[in-house]
Amino acid sequence: MTSLPGGPRVVRASAMMPELERDLVDRYAAPSLAELDGVVPGVEVAVVGFGNGVTAEVMDRLPDLRAIVNFGVGYDANDVDEARRRGIPIANTPDVLDDCVADVAVGLVIDVMRGLSAADRFVRRGEWAGGSRFPLTRRVTGARVGILGLGRIGLAIARRLEGFDTVISYHSRNRRDDVQYAYATSPIELAASCDVLIVVTPGGPGTQGLVDAPVLTALGPDGFLVNVARGSVVDEDALVAALEDGRIAGAGLDVYAHEPRVPEALTGRDDVVLLPHVASGTVETRRAMADLVLDNVERFLSHGVLLTPVD
Ligand code: DGY
């Protein structure tokens, strides 16, 4: 294993697994690739995640690289096409984080519709004690929910929100025949028919800017946006403009286009809830993700195949 300042970045075939294990489990996250400069040749498996991926340039510098293991379900920070071209398989950590991400999505729906974080600030600022009234908010029970991307996490969100008697519709690249939810043929059609639009699509070039100004306008002045997917899926400038113009009612965000940078225009607004990309961030889930990373590395080093390869 190659150890760099801040911890190991890259695992070699001769990896000392217990050391990697300790590092991943202690951190509950793959460390960044920022200090890749100086990594010696001989690296065969790269463990990356949380916005850090293996680009073509990194691949050039790691001529012995044979596999990439992505700590996280979203692997869009890696140059997937280039990896495919070079025959380098990628694994991610599916399934184990679905519940925690779905929990946070529902939390954001409730928070932004009911103004919980804003109400908390209102109390702390002494405005309630000073005689002010907190404005009325919107009802979650019975709301129309649109889910953009009905994969495993989208389904986990839908199942939870069924408990709130919500009316669920969705748009995905492919229509599912195993659910009863109404299918919208486009993001704009979905946005026009819901009170809260929840973004759960994968990131990457195929979904870049999918939620753009027309989609936000279709959501309407009483509509809310929740994003637990990738910041790249939402046109952030269009989102800021839609909030400023009152074309949507509010937004709950766990992800941003240029993390950890959050647009300054959002930080002063009471109609947005801002989380620091923590939807999967529980001890239980990060431990399960770390285990899956290690199982993938181990399987690859011992059998030459990954346990949970991406398509
Ligand atoms: C993922 O797994 O892609 C998440 O964004 C990490 O929290």
UniProtKB/TrEMBL annotation:
<keyword id="KW-0520">NAD</keyword>
<dbReference type="InterPro" id="IPR036291">
    <property type="entry name" value="NAD(P)-bd_dom_sf"/>
</dbReference>
<dbReference type="Pfam" id="PF02826">
    <property type="entry name" value="2-Hacid_dh_C"/>
</dbReference>
<feature type="domain" description="D-isomer specific 2-hydroxyacid dehydrogenase NAD-binding">
    <location>
        <begin position="106"/>
        <end position="279"/>
    </location>
</feature>
<keyword id="KW-0560">Oxidoreductase</keyword>
<dbReference type="InterPro" id="IPR050223">
    <property type="entry name" value="D-isomer_2-hydroxyacid_DH"/>
</dbReference>
<feature type="domain" description="D-isomer specific 2-hydroxyacid dehydrogenase catalytic">
    <location>
        <begin position="24"/>
        <end position="310"/>
    </location>
</feature>
<dbReference type="InterPro" id="IPR029752">
    <property type="entry name" value="D-isomer_DH_CS1"/>
</dbReference>
<dbReference type="Pfam" id="PF00389">
    <property type="entry name" value="2-Hacid_dh"/>
</dbReference>
<dbReference type="InterPro" id="IPR006140">
    <property type="entry name" value="D-isomer_DH_NAD-bd"/>
</dbReference>
<protein>
    <submittedName>
        <fullName>2-hydroxyacid dehydrogenase</fullName>
    </submittedName>
</protein>
<dbReference type="InterPro" id="IPR006139">
    <property type="entry name" value="D-isomer_2_OHA_DH_cat_dom"/>
</dbReference>
<comment type="similarity">
    <text>Belongs to the D-isomer specific 2-hydroxyacid dehydrogenase family.</text>
</comment>
